[in-house]
Design a protein that fits this description.
The protein is of the alpha+beta class. The chain has five helices and eight strands. It has one domain: Aminopeptidase (3-Layer(aba) Sandwich), CATH 3.40.630.
Length: 212
């Protein structure tokens, strides 16, 4: 589901996370055989596989659009240029799982939960999930020390999870891994509130000072 369908510019509809809300890397509710470690990666971070991963992502979006062209998030296929721009600028991030004996065995039999299985390299099994940030580079590098710095913080422009991978915590894990300060155009507000993004900037709300 497209948690935050994008505007690709500084949006007025924005939720910000309180300074004292900490993110936790909870383990998604996965089948027992999916027992590898989960971690975030950049879709453009591998010289040999970056292009292949990008086109796998486009195939996922096209498939989602073809199955249910009128549901929320299905129209994302019409924004391929925006996804390409994010990929080129190193702002397109995903989730992958390290390989284990159990995982390798099930993948030989076909594991539908993954988007693609890379044959070589350190990143093998990629979930059909992606997140686009407003800032390039490592999102954890963007820190602030006062409310006046909010416009300079990392911000989630879009979060998308394929239908078959929803409801098990992958979206939550993706958001926690990115550890951003804000989200633009937060369509599924209940989800974002649950993740700690409760300050509605569009209503004039501001963060509570970290220190009184």
């Amino acid at each position: 589901m497209c948690r935050s369908c994008h505007s690709w510019h500084m949006a007025l509809d924005r939720l910000v996370r309180e300074y004292d809300h900490a993110m936790f890397l909870q383990q998604p509710k996965l089948p027992e055989h999916l027992d590898g470690d989960i971690y975030a990666f950049n879709f453009a971070g591998d010289t040999w596989h970056a292009a292949a991963w990008f086109f796998c992502l486009l195939d996922e979006l096209q498939s989602a659009h073809d199955k249910t062209p009128t549901t929320p998030g299905s129209g994302f296929i019409h924004s391929r240029c925006a996804i390409l721009t994010a990929w080129h600028e190193h702002r397109l991030h995903g989730l992958c799982m390290s390989e284990t004996d159990s995982l390798r065995k099930h993948c030989r039999n076909g594991e539908n939960l993954f988007m693609t299985n890379t044959t070589f390299g350190t990143i093998r099994h990629i979930f059909p999930v992606f997140c686009i940030l407003r800032h390039a580079g490592d999102p954890k590098d963007h820190n602030v020390s006062s409310p006046q710095d909010e416009d300079d913080e990392s911000c989630i422009e879009c979060l998308w999870v394929a239908e078959r991978a929803r409801g098990i915590g992958l979206g939550q894990r993706m958001v926690a891994e990115m550890n951003c300060a804000a989200v633009d155009i937060p369509v599924a507000r209940d989800f974002w509130h649950k993740m700690g993004y409760t300050v509605d900037v569009s209503l004039g709300a501001v963060r509570k000072p970290l220190y009184d």
